[in-house]
Structure prediction request, 219 residues.
Amino acid sequence: MNIVLFGAQGSGKGTQAEKLVATFHCHHISSGDIFRDAFEDGSELGRVAHSYIERGELVPDDITVEMMLQRITQPHIARAGFILDGFPRTIAQAKALDEGLAKLGREIDCSVYFDVPRAELIKRLSGRYICKAHQHVYNVRTKPPKVAGICDMDGSELYQRTDDQGPAIEKRLDIFFSETIQLLDYYRAQNKLLHVDGNRDIDEVSADLIERLKKYLSR
Ligand code: AMP
Prediction:
């Protein structure tokens, strides 16, 4: 099973991806996490990507597509299937993804759009904290950790991403609502779109999503 999750920053993609992995036992692949890990490792890819990420801009398509196709086409990932979180973000990336998978005789089975109003996204992003070890996501209002500043899952320290603060938030949302939103038409035209109301409690969204995905995938 190969699924694309898309939605604006703060729409809940990462949180829902973790829940889907627990249900469907496939791999969660987040392009943002891979870029951040590459930066922590001090690699050239991480250094280049960091300059775009800090400004709230998209990393160029050629760099992003190469990195993601390399990951997705690894045999153990291709075999178990994957949930993509944060990729594709442009029509060019979506086409390159379809072409790369077609070469392996695979395809995207379904895409899920998490629909959340912009005012709610800004509220969520300003309260969002991420764990240093594995990038588990918390929110001071909607999903606080049991102990302030510490990840429930692995005990690592929580931090606020620099691109979740200040003008980078607005810029990232502008790019989403002008560019990435075009994926709605792309996947609708392929009859592979599930539109989900993401402006609800986390557990309500995941129960609805899992039920609809099961139905969708058994069509
Ligand atoms: P995210 O954690 O998904 O919000 O991604 C953090 C940042 O990584 C984004 O603001 C972009 O700068 C970069 N990034 C992640 N995924 C992509 C992508 N598919 N295309 C271009 N840039 C990306």
